[in-house]
Design a protein that fits this description.
2 helices, Insect_cuticle, CHIT_BIND_RR_consensus, cuticle, about 10% helix, mainly beta, Insect_Cuticle_Struc_Prot, 5-stranded antiparallel beta sheet
Length: about 300
């Protein structure tokens, strides 16, 4: 009983002194809601590529629209929204009437004309060879003049205007780190443009490119900034087990009446002897008992 009391009292003193281990709790930091705006457009009358899009986000609410001209000339417009409650919703509208292109021109040969031969042109008795050749040539000339001989119809391809367009777009979202942009221009077969983005390590990559019939495709890549490595994530863990050092006996207990000792006290790992008791020669009337000093280490 005395030993249990001493152990409990010692543990209470150690806890008060901050020697017992305590779990460290790390709370996750709340993230700011996502927020961005972006848009782009393309208008190329030569190829008929006409389209645009714009979108905005604030937290879980997204609103945007896009439109383009279909191959039949109809303008399709889509307006959409999405959030955590309503999900994704879109409204689709069409403007204009379908336009069917004219059939392509095909080059072909005129069918062979039917020629009706009349009676012999003239009767020549014993004509010489030059006279006969002259009659044949004269007959062919007359048939050609009358439009009876076939003629090939030639169709020339119409020259196409050189391609020409300009477009650009950009995205800047500080919350997710999505930062990028692109712009491009074309005049005929010459294309010039550039794009840039922020890599995961924080370095800004910039690419400038060009292409034409003579030089082909060429690009120049540049990097700006210094790589930044993120700090390791915080992990919740339990503190290591503390080493306990127990001081001198916790308390002195004075008993008035003789003390009766029962069976030996239970063995305690790494404990000193339970107690030393000094008996006087005269009958025991007063006994002083000191708790043993207990010290152990893990």
């Amino acid at each position: 009983m005395v030993a249990k009391f001493a152990i409990i009292l010692s543990l209470a003193a150690a806890a008060y002194a901050g020697l017992l281990p305590a779990a460290k709790v790390v709370y996750a930091e709340s993230e700011a809601p996502a927020h961005y705006d972006f848009s782009y457009s393309v208008h190329d009358d030569h190829s008929g590529d006409i389209k645009q899009q714009q979108e905005s986000r604030a937290g879980d609410a997204v609103h945007g629209s896009y439109s383009f001209v279909q191959p039949d000339g109809v303008h399709r417009i889509v307006e959409y929204s999405a959030d955590a409650h309503q999900g994704f919703n879109a409204i689709v509208r069409y403007k204009g009437s379908p336009v069917h292109p004219a059939p392509a021109k095909v080059t072909y040969a005129t069918p062979v004309a039917k020629v009706a031969y009349a009676a012999p042109i003239t009767k020549v008795a014993y004509a010489t060879a030059p006279v006969t050749h002259f009659v044949i040539v004269l007959s062919l000339a007359a048939a050609a003049y009358a439009g009876l001989l076939p003629a090939t119809k030639v169709v020339y391809a119409e020259p196409e205007a050189p391609a020409h367009y300009d477009f650009s777009y950009s995205v800047h979202d500080d919350h997710s780190g999505d930062v990028k942009q692109q712009q491009e221009s074309r005049a005929g077969d010459a294309v010039h443009g550039s794009y840039s983005l922020v890599q995961p390590d924080g370095v800004h990559r910039i690419v400038e490119y060009s292409a034409d019939d003579h030089q082909g495709f060429n690009a120049i890549v540049r990097y700006e900034g210094t790589p930044v490595h993120p700090a390791p994530a915080k992990v919740a863990y339990a503190a290591p087990v503390a080493k306990f050092a127990y001081a001198a006996p916790v308390a002195k207990v004075a008993y008035a009446s003789p003390v009766a000792y029962a069976a030996p006290v239970a063995k305690v790992a790494y404990a000193a002897p339970v107690a030393k008791v000094a008996y006087a020669s005269a009958p025991v009337s007063h006994v002083t008992y000191s708790s043993p000093a207990i010290a152990y280490h893990h």
